[in-house]
Design a protein that fits this description.
This protein has 278 residues and is an alpha/beta fold. It folds into three domains: 2-57, Nucleic acid-binding proteins (OB fold (Dihydrolipoamide Acetyltransferase, E2P), Beta Barrel), CATH 2.40.50; 62-180 and 188-205, Rossmann fold, CATH 3.40.50.300; 220-277, Ribonucleotide Reductase Protein R1, domain 1 (Orthogonal Bundle), CATH 1.10.40. 27% of the residues lie in helices and 23% in strands. It has eight helices and 13 strands. The protein has helices at 30-34, 86-99, 115-125, 142-149, 164-172, 220-225, 250-256, 262-277, and strands at 2-10, 13-18, 23-28, 44-48, 51-55, 61-62, 67-68, 72-77, 102-107, 130-133, 153-157, 196-199, 202-205. The strands form three sheets. Strands 10-9-8-11-13-12 form a six-stranded mixed sheet, sandwiched between helices. It has a five-stranded mixed β-barrel with strand order 1-2-3-5-4. The radius of gyration is 21 Å and the shape is globular. The N and C termini lie far apart (49 Å). Bound molecules: guanosine-5'-triphosphate, magnesium ion and zinc ion. Residues 236, 241, 243, 246, 249-251 line the site of zinc ion.
Length: 278
């Protein structure tokens, strides 16, 4: 019996990558099918003699694309072509954090920006996530992104036109899937199967994620916890401080003194209003 990771699914047949870079094709045991055990690309499974025997507990599960155990979400954003807002970045970073995956924030199309604009972006986000500047056109930043994928399962995310497909083909050497529906599965409930493609000693999911974006937040307090920017500050006077109007708020103080980015704080306030009104 051996343990491996599901890299693709085709009907009832699954391909499983084993540690030694080999892959086997397996079918689930009848007992798993009867128990309606869900098997997703990204799942760690036990296989034996052409059979998929069990699915190990998951770290997380994305719905779009349907992938389990995503370690890293590579969020691409641009300041030009298209000019995306800091609020858009903040909303996506929170959505990623809520999945339990680690975000890697990529300033894409860096070739279109001045050194000053790139510096400002880094300064704004240095406490929010690891930041990489990327130009797929000039080939810069690719090694840093490869290093973040190494040993992990990563998925690309970001608004339309930020360069996800271009980056995917730079990293994998293969064209990105267009996302069109397969002939077998036309219709509203079509599942978009994702595959894992080996990249830099890890895997990259061949379908980008987080296209439809709504924050699954129940209480506004969950939002404050999703901003790493101020997690290392001493506590506020009130344990459940929303960092808006309460007295002795360490976050507001840090914004005033420049230790926390004002841009990030304003994104937080805007998201807070959205979540509170929802
Ligand atoms: N200047 C510049 N342009 C880029 C770069 N990467 C991609 N582009 C261009 O940006 C446009 C959009 O790139 P795509 O890779 O298709 O973007 P996408 O994120 O896959 O877009 P969707 O599939 O609509 O979500 C294309 O015209 C690319 O040639 C880059 O590093 N620099
Ligand atoms: Mg694309
Ligand atoms: Zn506070």
């Amino acid at each position: 019996m051996s343990r491996g990771r599901v890299t693709s699914a085709l009907g009832a047949t699954f391909r499983v990558g084993l540690g030694d870079a080999s892959e086997v094709e397996v079918r689930p045991l009848g007992a798993l099918r009867h128990a309606r055990q869900e098997i997703l690309v990204g799942d760690w499974v036990e296989v034996d003699g052409g059979r998929l025997i069990s699915v190990l507990p998951r770290r997380n599960r994305l719905l779009r694309p349907r992938v389990a155990n995503v370690d890293v979400v590579i969020l691409l954003t641009t300041k030009k072509d298209p000019p995306l807002s800091d609020l858009d970045v903040a909303r996506r970073l929170v959505a990623i954090t809520l999945t339990g995956a680690t975000p890697l924030l990529v300033l894409a199309k860096a070739d279109l920006l001045s050194a000053g604009q790139r510096r400002e972006f880094r300064a704004t986000y240095r406490q929010a996530a690891a930041v990489v500047e990327l130009s797929s056109r000039e080939g810069t930043g690719l090694e840093a992104i490869g290093a973040a994928i190494s040993g992990h399962v990563a998925v690309l995310a970001g608004a339309s036109g930020v360069g996800k497909s271009t980056l995917f083909s730079r990293l994998t050497g293969q064209p990105a899937r267009t996302g069109g529906l397969s002939a077998a599965g036309r219709g509203r409930h079509t599942t978009r199967w994702a595959n894992l493609v080996p990249v830099a000693g890890g895997y990259l999911v061949d379908t980008p994620g987080f296209e439809a974006l709504t924050l699954e937040i129940n209480a506004p307090s969950q939002l404050a916890a999703s901003f790493p920017d101020w997690q290392s500050l001493p506590g506020c006077r009130f344990g459940d401080c929303s960092h808006r109007t309460e007295p002795d708020c360490q976050v507001r103080e840090a914004v005033e003194s420049g230790r926390v980015s004002r841009v990030r704080y304003e994104s937080y306030l805007a998201l807070y209003r959205e979540v509170a009104e929802a």
